[in-house]
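ARCHIVE CARD
Drawer: 12
Card no.: 0347
Subject: one protein chain, sequence and derived structure
Cross-reference: see card 0346
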Amino acid sequence: MSAWVDEPLYRLVRSAADPVWAVFLLSIPVAFISPAAAMYSWILIWPASVVHGRVQDSRFAKAETARVDAGLLGDRSVPGCALD
């Protein structure tokens, strides 16, 4: 991981695809009962992604606020972290 990528940003980007694979995995047992219902359940990816994105954005904002309060953000020795 690069020095300019902090832990909250890494978690935000890494977890962006979580709703996609979660809905897909949950649709597999549904496919044994009704393949069409499993296919239509993939529509749930959109609202799940929206909700997940809002939760992750909130967590990211809290983590960044804590970093600013602790004085960890704005270090000019790390590229991309300087606050102007």
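Annotation on reverse: The mean pLDDT is 83. The CA atoms of residues 52 and 58 lie 10 Å apart.
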